[in-house]
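Sequence in, structure out. Go.
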Amino acid sequence: MISEESPLLATTAHELVYDRFTPDQKRWIVFLVSYAGFLPTFVSSTFVPSIPQIAKDLDSTHAVVSLTVSLSILASAIGALVWAAHSSFYGRRSIYLWGMPFLCVGSCGVALSTSLQSLFLWRFVQTFGCAGGMSLGAGVIGDIYKLEERGTAIGVFFGATLLGYAVAPFLGGAATQYWSWRSLHYSIGAWGLLEMLLLYLSFPETSHPGTLGIDKVTHRKWIRISWVNPLSSLWLLRSPNLFAVMFASSLVLISDFVLLVPLAYTIGVRYGITNEAIIGACFLPNGLGNFIGAPIAGRQSDTVVRRWREKRKGVWCPEDRLRATWIGGLFMVPLSVGASGLITTYVGGPIGLALNLLCLFTNGLGVDFVVNPIGSYNVDVVHSRSAEVTAAYMASRSLMISAATALVIPSIERIGVAWTNIIAAVLAVIGQGLIFLTIRYGDRMRASVDVGFSTTENN
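Output:
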C-alpha cells in the first residue's frame, strides 16, 4: 500500500524516458494534441446554435432535434473510454489515426442528413470519432513531461482545447445566420482530414517503451487485433480519491453549464438579444476565461507541488497539487455564478449585461483553477493508465453534468434564475469541500483501494 509518507516519486533512471524528445519536439506534440483536443469541444458547441435551423430544414421541432445534444454526450463518453483503453494497448499514434476517419465520415453524414434518423446516426459517429481528443491528449502529455512540468503543459493543452467552447458557439451561430449548417459540418470533416494528415506525417508514438499491451503479445499475427474492454477504465473510479475528485469537479463544472446552457433564455431574453451570432458572442468571455485561466492554473499547480515537496525534503504527496484549487472553487466559481443570477434578475440595461459578461469571464477562470489541477492529479497518481483514468473521469463527469443540465431550464422556469444560480454556487462550494477532504485524507483513501498508483519505477 502507498501512504502519504512514501516517496512515491524520486530521481531515478526512469526519468530519462522523458528526455526522448527535445523541448521543440515536445512543444510541437502539445500543439498537435491541442489541435486534436480542440475538435470535440468545437464539434459539440457549434451544433447548439444551429438547432432551430436544423429543426426547420428537417421539418421537426426544437425539442426533438435537441435530443442530439444528449446523444452526443453519450457518444463522447463511450468514445473517450474506447479510444483511451485501446491507446494503452496499441499506442497513442494509432488510436488518433483510427478515430479521425469516424469524424470525417460522420461530419459528411450530418451534412447530408435529410431525416432525424440519419442525423442521429451520423451525429453519434461524428462525436464518437473525435471523443478521444481530451483523454488521449492528457495521456500524451503524461508520457513526455515530468511531474514538475506536467501541470503547466496540461494547462496549455486544456487552455487551447477549451478555447473551442469560446469560439464555437459564435462560429456556429454565424454559420447558421449567414451561411449553412450543412456547409459547417463539411468544413469540420475537412478539418478532421487535415488533422489526420498532420498526425500521420509528424506525430510520433509517445508511450513509454515496453509499456503497451501489444508489446507483450507473444504470438504476433499480420493483423494484430485484440479485445480491449473499454469499460475497464471506469473501474479505476472505485478508488475513493479518484471518485471524490471526479465528483467534486462535476459539482464545480455544473456552474459553467448553468450559466451557458440557458444563456439565450436568461441573458438573451433579459437584455433583448435575438440574433444567434450575438448570442453566440456572449459565450466568448467564458471561453476567454478558460483560455487564460488554464495555463495559469497549470503553472500554479506545478509551483505548489515543488513548494510542498521541498517542505517534505523531497517526499512527494500527490494531493499537494489539489491545494491549488481553493481560489477557484471557494471564491471565483460560487461568487460568479451566484452574482450572475442576481444581476440578471435585478439589474437591467447595458450595465447588467456588462456585469454578466464579467461573471462569465470570472467563472471561466475559476473553473480552470479547479479542473486543471484535478486533471493533472489524475495523470500523476495513475500515470501508467493516464489516458484511461482521464477518460473515466471525463465520461463519468459528462454523464453527471448531462443529467444536471436537463434540470437547468425547468428549474429556472419554476424558481427563477437567481435561486437556480445560488443552488449551483452551493454545489460548487460542496465540491471544493470534497477536495479539501481529499487533501486531508488522501493517503488513507489511496491505501484503502490501490488501483495501481504511481511509484518511482513507473511515473
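Check: Residues 1-11 have pLDDT under 50 and may be disordered. The first helix runs from residue 23 to 47.
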